[in-house]
């Protein structure tokens, strides 16, 4: 009879169970942010629809995911003033790309800071016939970049 409390098979099962539960436990320990208020009224005045609507739908989720992923919690609110999309034909960015920008403010803990996020659009010939879909993808990409900068604390 063995003096060990577990057989090798039972010990292996316990180790595998620990590895399976560990990521879930780490994820549960992270704070989750359900909703981040995003004010797009200034954007609605400057850019109109559909840009303001795209930002209003994409940015809150991107912010919640980025902030939760970085382990941050606490009240955060965002105001988007402007979205500037570069030309669809290419531009002066890296490798002929067009720089796109999202300009706004982030309020966290009573402190409001300006934030400008930039992403780059690389022209695609198919985008010339589907400009609205192309611009939607560009705005969603800008929302993700903006959210990442917010999560980094800038």
Provide structural commentary:
The chain has one domain. Helix content is 45%, strand content 21%. It has four helices and four strands; from the N terminus they run αβααβββα. The protein has helices spanning 8-29, 41-46, 51-69, 131-152, and strands at 38-39, 76-84, 98-108, 111-121. The chain has a four-stranded mixed β-sheet with strand order 1-2-3-4. Strand 3 (98-108) and strand 4 form a beta hairpin. The protein is extended, with a radius of gyration of 22 Å. The relative contact order is 0.15.
Distance between the termini: 63 Å
> Total helix count?
4
Large-scale geometry? extended
Arithmetic mean pLDDT? 81
Order of helices and strands: HEHHEEEH
How much of the sequence lies in strands comes to 15-25%
Radius of gyration: 22 Å
Name the descriptors.
154 residues, extended, alpha+beta, four-stranded mixed sheet, single chain
Short description:
This protein is of the alpha+beta class.
Write the layout of secondary structure elements.
Blueprint: H1 8-29, E1 38-39, H2 41-46, H3 51-69, E2 76-84, E3 98-108, E4 111-121, H4 131-152
Parallel strand pairs: 1-2
Antiparallel strand pairs: 2-3, 3-4
Helix pairs in contact: 3-4
